[in-house]
Amino acid sequence: MFRPTDPQAEMFSAAGLLPPRKRDACEKSWAGPFRKKALPVLLRAEPEFAKFYDEDNGRPNRSVALVLGTLILKEASDLTDEEALDALRFDTRWWCAFDLNADEADLCQKTLHNFRVKLLAGEKGYLVFRHLTDALIAALGLKVDRQRLDSTHILSNFAMLNRLGLFCETIRVFLHALYKGHRDLHDRLPEGMLKRHGEQSWYRDARREEGPRRLRVVARDLYRLVEGFKTHRAISRMEEFKLLERLLAEQCEIRENAPGPREDDDDRGDPPAPVEPKDPKEIKIKGNTLQTPHDPEVTYSGHKGKGYEVQVAETCVKENPVQMITEVALTPSSGSDQKATVPTIDALAKAGHKPKSLAADTGYSSATNAAEAAKRGVNLVAPAPAMAKPEPGKEYPAPEADCPKGRTKAGEWLTRREAQPGFKEEYAIRSGSEATNSELKRVQGLGKLRVRREKRVKLVVYLKAAGCNPRRALRHWTTIPGMLPEIAASPA
Description:
The protein has helices at about 15, 20-30, 30-45, 65-75, 80-90, 90-95, 110-120, 125-140, 165-180, 185, 190-195, 210-230, 235, 240-250, 340-350, 365-375, 405-420, 425, 430-440, 455-480, and strands spanning about 145-155, 250-255, 275, 300, 305-315, 325-330, 355-360, 380. By secondary structure, it is an alpha/beta fold. The protein folds into three domains: about 15-120, no CATH class; about 125-160 and about 305-465 and about 480-490, Nucleotidyltransferase, domain 5 (2-Layer Sandwich), CATH 3.30.420.10; about 165-275, no CATH class.
């Protein structure tokens, strides 16, 4: 049953019971500004999450603002659930931040877990980021007319697998699911196959000279499993089985004249399988092929590796007392940054933070993107794409102030603008994105997450971005005495 948090302060809150010197220290830390400025935003956002609870049944919920705030502070400091809940129980600053007494400063891990599950199901992570960000931008009076955009590569919680390891682990995951759901069918499989891919098997740990031979063996194992269960209605619907089929289609080739097991192969006693691993020298394995059975949405980029990309836009106006992240989005590692330029501008416009100029690197630059940005009233400040670079030594006339809306003229505008003497100085503001990416990775643990699968990764990305902005605002407010403006209500 949903119950909004009572905004009335506790008569005997933790802050009120502290000695004056400690109370003053708490107020001067991040906890004071958080209670005064961030907590009211969370309280106003609570009705957005009322649908998480039954209208008539069940006990009243724990404070949504408390749960949300704990999740945000957890990601802002890259804490585990246990560390965050311990901080809530024992750290006086957390008590002051949420205006709680010592008895109320507690959450059950199950409560935190269940709320996160509901955030995933309702895809509400972006809403949390949006509410906090919009409120902080308004409170700080930030200008958003100049922004910069960059991407950073992140990893979810999966192990890096070589090709043999990918085959072995995908088969092992399927056999484990088969054992749990269909023990009788699992036990009928060839003993050698179960030994090669069992829970305690190290078959994927082969010396380099043994790798190709073992790869042919596991490719035949893969084929036998797919052929053996593809007509079984229940098993063919299992996600683990679909991953077997995907791996077989992407990495193997069915051949009638494929050589069978050799005398020294480990599957020499098993049924024949007319399949061979595809030769990576003869075919191009695309970046969106399966990289791990534990996170099938992970893709591969030749220069960045396996994982995901996070698109990060932030303000870069010199007059701003602090810069804020204005938009984040999760994209495939195998995708091009060019595809993120226009969607980012559209998202910023929808949030009410559309810039007049957007600085980005060459990866985001193209005549099409410049023209589409111009149609939306935005100038793309980026080097010209490789095919349209200014010729060394050639003089180019100064471009128009604003980019033309036609594709051809927009491409010419990019070239002419890059050729101008002042372009490097204007474009230098983009380099600040590297510091933001570093902050998100080093301070908040964005580089290597504790979760996997796209929906969970996306939620953590939103929460970490939602935690980064308050960190910056609180740092600013705690270093400048008296600068604590009221935060306006965030638009729904």
